Amino acid sequence: MKKRVRNVMLSALFLTGSLMMTEQASAAKVGPEEWTEYRMNSENNPVYNSSFDEEIQDVIETNNQIRSTPVIVGNNAYIGNHESGDLYSYNLVEGTMNWEAKAPNWVHSEMIYAEDNLFVGFGNRYFKENGTRGTEDSGVLSLNPETGETRWKFETDGEVMPTPAFHDGTVYIVAGDRHLYAVDAESGEEEWNLELGHVMSMSSPTIEDGMLYVGGGAPTPYTFTAVDLEKEEISWQTEFPEAYAGLDDVPPVIYEDSVITTALEGEEDDNPTHMIYAMNTDNGEMKWKDSLGQGEMVKNNKSGAPMIYEDQVFVASPITKSYYAYNAADGEQNWKYEANVSKAPPVAEDGTVYFTDKEGFVYAFDTETYELLGSKELGGVLAPSGPVLMNGTLIVGSQDSNVYALPTSDVRGSSDASFFWTSPLGITLFAATALLAVVLLFILRKRTARKDPRRVGK
Question: Keywords for this entry (predicted)?
Answer without folding.
Answer: Membrane, Signal, Transmembrane, Transmembrane helix
